Each structure stands twice: as C-alpha cells, then as structure tokens.
C-alpha cells in the first residue's frame, strides 16, 4: 500500500518527531477528516488506534495510515458503536494493552443528514443525539482515566515540549447562528461544545486540555457528499457564501489538530477552533437548495427529499 503524499494531509511547517512515543485514540477514525488528523499525528511520531462501525473500512484505513511513517503501529477496530460505553471501554483496554496508553483523543464519530423539523422523526433526532453527543460523552468517559495518567506523566508546565492528556471533540457550526434543516445536528453539536467546555474546567486542574475543532465545508468528505450540492459545485455557486471563495482541505483540519496537541497549544483549553474560511459568519442556503431563504422552506423542496 503506497503512502499518501504529505501535502494531502498536513502542511510542511511541522517538525518531525514532535509526537514521538505518544498514542492517539480516535473515534470515527476511518472517516475522511479524522483519518487525515490521525495520519498527520502518526507521520509526526505517534502510534494510533482508530475506531469505527465498519470492520473492513476501519481496518483498511488503519493499514493506510500506518504507511505515513515506517515503524508506526496503527490499529483499526471496527464493529464499535460509540453509543455503547462497553464497546469503547473494550477498545480502550485493547489500546492500552497493545500501544501502552492513551495520550491524545479525537472524538470524531458523527451522523447527519438534511431534514426540516416537519420531516424529522423523533427517532431520527434521537439517533443523531446518541451518536454525536452521547457518543462523545462515552468517548470521554472511557478514555479520561488514561488521559489523567498521560497528563501526570507528561505535565503541562509551559516549558515541557512533550505534554499529554489532551482531547479534541469534532463539532459543527450549525448552532452558532442556527441553521435551517439542521435542528438535529445543531442540538447535538451544541451539546458537544458544552461537554468540552465543562471537561476543560473539571479536568484542567489535572493537566488535561479539552478543545473543539469545528470544520467548515471540506472538499471530498462524506459530510459534503451528504449535505452539499453537486449542482451548485458544478456551476460555481457552491463556494460563494464562503468568504475565502473555496472549500477547505482535510489537511487544514489536520493542521489545527497538530497545533492543539503540540507544544504550541499548551495553554489552549476550553476553546472552539472554527476552521471554515469564515463560512459560519456568512448567511446562505444549505446544499441542494435551488432558491433563497425562506423560499426553499416554503416550497416544500426538502419535504420531498427527507421522509426518514
């Protein structure tokens, strides 16, 4: 299996070896964004365990990530449901046994789709809450004992270049301003943001940092496939609401991850790092809308598309 070019998953500014002897545990690790985050950390010295639902996809991605650095150890565990704390506790136990501990955690498992409230069933709403919010809480609960050990072993003194005990939750910007057709995801991610803030307060005294990364529209991801508009991308209108006039790249999310886990992020705690080119500040219609707000809500465009 050939290694991906570094330029696809991280910038060239980072120093080799900054994550030597560290272990990262990532839920949703077979996804486009999370796999790039983990790949960058592995390239810079870490070993990793990625968690996913699909066994084959997760194991294949783990093998691919391992090509980022000769001698790295990357384990992929599929058939893990983040809604079940027992699944995560089992994965954590295996990670500790095989990789020696956990220094960094990325809580990245998520689910989403487009739907107006009128077409959103209680079960569909609950499913997103369970995966995004409860899943993030379960990830924290299962890993925090190991993060405490890592933080104690690698103290955050401000001068130590190799700290441990850090967690990043992957969020979204829907709840920052409100977003039509995203009530379920907005509520779920608002809960994730609140969880991270509380984690920063409760575990900061133990040396743990907890932060949020909020990706915007990122090219080539599963999220854009579900929520974006191929028609708008084809005619060049998709990017107009993004102030930088382009979609982001997965490497830009990975760069933010490196920053928060590295020595450069030692004093960053309880923050929300939005990496979206300013998109959340710019009003616009969701992917697939063929008219402006509020017309796309009143003409039943999405009512027809979202009978779940």
TrEMBL record:
<keyword id="KW-0560">Oxidoreductase</keyword>
<dbReference type="Pfam" id="PF13561">
    <property type="entry name" value="adh_short_C2"/>
</dbReference>
<protein>
    <recommendedName>
        <fullName>2,4-dienoyl-CoA reductase [(3E)-enoyl-CoA-producing]</fullName>
        <ecNumber>1.3.1.124</ecNumber>
    </recommendedName>
</protein>
<dbReference type="InterPro" id="IPR002347">
    <property type="entry name" value="SDR_fam"/>
</dbReference>
<dbReference type="GO" id="GO:0005777">
    <property type="term" value="C:peroxisome"/>
</dbReference>
<dbReference type="GO" id="GO:0009062">
    <property type="term" value="P:fatty acid catabolic process"/>
</dbReference>
<dbReference type="GO" id="GO:0008670">
    <property type="term" value="F:2,4-dienoyl-CoA reductase (NADPH) activity"/>
</dbReference>
<dbReference type="InterPro" id="IPR045017">
    <property type="entry name" value="DECR2-like"/>
</dbReference>
<keyword id="KW-0521">NADP</keyword>
<dbReference type="InterPro" id="IPR036291">
    <property type="entry name" value="NAD(P)-bd_dom_sf"/>
</dbReference>
